[in-house]
Design a protein that fits this description.
alpha/beta; four-stranded mixed sheet; three-stranded mixed sheet; 18% helix
Length: 123
């Protein structure tokens, strides 16, 4: 039987508590314009190459509860870079919380303001 589900990722949702603060943080890290549209008061699709990233306060998935939706505590995806050391130095310079140093000369992990762990990996 052939599956009708495609082996293609459309977008990754990142749970955030403050959509405007998260938008600013991700736009700064990724070098995106800081005015990405916030939709319906809780969604912010970031303009990406490849699979999409959507920041979301997750009102239907715990976002209305005290403390909001739980963060991603194990890196579930990675942002790519052509220059790992420059990316590490940039993240450090703009005050991003570094969770690891550069590991195996291939990747490092940062923490966003909501506690989500994000891997940055050599392309």
């Amino acid at each position: 039987m052939t599956s009708p589900v495609k082996n293609k990722i459309g977008s990754v949702f990142i749970p955030v508590k403050d959509i405007e603060k998260a938008r600013s943080w991700y736009c700064r890290l990724l070098g995106l314009p800081p005015d990405c549209e916030i939709m319906n008061g809780h969604l912010c699709p970031l303009p990406m190459e490849g699979a999409g990233v959507i920041l979301d306060t997750m009102p239907g998935w715990g976002g209305k509860e005290p403390g909001g939706a739980p963060p991603i505590t194990t890196p579930a995806f990675m942002f790519l870079t052509g220059d790992l050391q420059a990316s590490f130095d940039f993240a450090k310079d703009i005050g991003v919380e570094l969770v690891t140093e550069i590991e195996s000369n291939h990747w490092f992990v940062v923490k966003d303001p909501d506690g989500n762990l994000i891997m940055i990996c050599r392309e």
